[in-house]
Amino acid sequence: MLINNASAKISINMQYKNLVTHGKNKSKLSSGFTIVELLVVIVVIGILAAITIVSYTGISQKATAAALKSDLKNASTQLEMDKVTNGTYPATKEAANNGRGLQTSPGTILDYVYVGGSDSYSLAATKSSTSYFITSTDKTPTIGSIVAAIGWEQITSGGSHTCAVTNNKIYCWGSNEYGQLGNNSVTNSRIPVSVDMTGVLNGKTVTAISAGTNNTCAIANNLAYCWGYNGIVQPVINTTAFNVVPTAIDTSGVLNGKTVTAISAGDYATCAIANGQAYCWGFNADGELGNNTTTGSAVPVAVNIAGVLSGKTVTAISAGDYHTCAIANGQAYCWGYNGDGEFGNTNYTDSLVPVAVNIAGVLSGKTVTAISAGNSHTCAIANNQAYCWGANWDGQLGNNSAIDDSPTPVAVDITGVLSGKTITVISTGNSNTCAIANSQAYCWGSSWDGQLGNNNATGSSSIPITVNTAGVLSGKTITVISTGEAHVCVLANAQANCWGHNWEAQLGNNAITSSGIPVSVDINSL
Predict the structure, then answer these.
(1) Under 8 Å CB-to-CB from 519, ≥6 apart: which residues?
(2) Cα 5 to Cα 112: distance, rounded to the nearest angstrom
(3) What would you report as the CA-atom Rg of the chain, rounded to the nearest whole angstrom?
(4) Across-strand partners of 371?
(5) What CATH number corresponds to the domain at position 91?
(6) Predicted TM-score of the model (pTM)
(7) What is each CA distance from 132 to 112, 139, 176, 221, in whole angstroms?
(8) Which of 144, 175, 312, 445 could form a disulfide bond with 504, CB atoms 3.0-4.6 angstroms apart?
(9) What's the average model confidence in pLDDT over 444-453?
(10) Is 376 in contact with 391 (CB distance < 8 Å)?
(11) List of residues 6+ apart from 484 with CB closer than 8 A
(12) Residue at 233 is within a domain
């Protein structure tokens, strides 16, 4: 409701005169006002103040929106001039205007993304928590950040949190008890919040990210950085119990001079690949560091290469809860805890060094191209099909069997929804597994928190089932899938969608209610 200030003042004056005229018989304060009169004056002053605040807020918001739209128009004009002059749009906003950069009004932050393949761009302007964006093909300012304009590029699901990357910026949401959101706090968030990029990650290019149970790690400019829990379980560096902002992983030892190309944060350890070899750090009671000891390490140590990995190049690595697995020269290798057969080497014996996954059965003659270590099971892709081994109490091996576990690889069932399909991505959680086949998502195993995504939160499935596509995933192409402890997230048409357990807000949809079907991650506030 709008109130005219002038009318309000006239009304107040009339009320005051009436009070003075008719209040003679009431008890007076020493100032000459009755208590009732004074209360009325106070209320009126409050109303006027509220009106002024609301009016100012509205004017301020309109001014901010106008400034942002003007900044976008001016920047777009300059970009078009650059294209006329140089034949293409500039690669960065700093390169625009002959290296002078894109100019903005005071306080405006510009995010610019150039897509060389299509010679196009997305541009967003943000000020006072308000954002508008445009693209090279649509110059109409639309409310939203660069995330809304270009979408997410990477996503990873951890224990009870999730992180995603866009335009070299990392956002996380969900549980933050140990600072795993990296935003310099320990407060949970129901929506994405920006990881602190003002410190060690300032100006760096993020190329990979991995969320563990209570920590998160990333690769930027070929080096590793982590944040979150930093105690005996998942040490980042030998300092405090947890880090609430990104911290550089020690490079004075085995990683000195090496290029980090892959990273995986697990429950009890974090592992990485550098120059074709595997390195791990963290808790090591079960040998998950693979360095032939059970001594934990707060700095990276080299995984043993005196045995089965001798002379081989490691191309993929995955840290589970108590075991770690890797791919080298097209074959799978695991180390650490093996009590449920998660090594796939026909026995249940733990190992402090890598051992080869059995290739005498279903993996015979096949080339392993992807691997994922879960809580107590492991899954891999070989020749475009899925294979799993280890614990199976909830059907997470997906082979339509009721056995408790399998110490050798078994083929995931392809007689149903996966018939004739090509599997390209696989991800294991606590007691479930998900995959992408022909650009759609499929899951199997536990569904007690809705993590199968088929709107059934009352049981499990020992065969793959199709994730619900009637809602936010309708007509979309899924390119990335990541399974956390009891939730799953995907990127579909560059937008983030999640399902499953949500008590710590790991679905990022501004709620704490679990969902048996995919829901969209909230980006309205970005």
Answers:
(1) 471, 472, 497, 498, 499, 507, 509
(2) 43
(3) 29
(4) 380
(5) 3.30.1300
(6) 0.85
(7) 12, 11, 29, 29
(8) 175
(9) 94
(10) yes
(11) 157, 158, 159, 160, 161, 162, 211, 429, 500, 506
(12) no
Q: Give CA–CA dist 171/166, Å, rounded.
A: 8
Type and span of the H or E element at 48 = helix 35-86
Report if residue 66 sits inside a domain.
yes
Q: How far is CA 44 from the centre of its chain?
A: 49
Count the alpha carbons within 13 Å of 12 in the hemisphere toward its beta carbon.
17
Kindly state the tokens that stand for 201: 């990650």
Tokens of 413: 């069932």
Q: For residue 143, what are the domain limits?
A: 61-150
339-381 per-position pLDDT tens digit = 999 999 999 999 999 999 999 999 999 999 999 999 999 999 9
Residue 136 lies inside a defined structural domain of this protein: yes
Sequence-distant (≥ 6) Cβ neighbours of residue 281 within 8 angstroms: 235, 249, 269, 270, 271, 289, 297, 298, 299, 300, 301
14-18, 246-250, 445-449: which has the minimum mean pLDDT?
A: 14-18
Q: Partners of 440 in the beta sheet?
A: 437
- Return the structure tokens found at 250: 């020690």
Please provide the size of the chain in residues.
526
Count of domains observed in the chain:
1
In a domain, 175, yes or no: no
Instruction: Report the alpha-carbon distance of residue 164 to residue 143 in Å, rounded.
Output: 21
Cα torsion for 129, 130, 135, 141, to the nearest 10°?
180
CA nearest to 265, candidates 211, 207, 325: 211
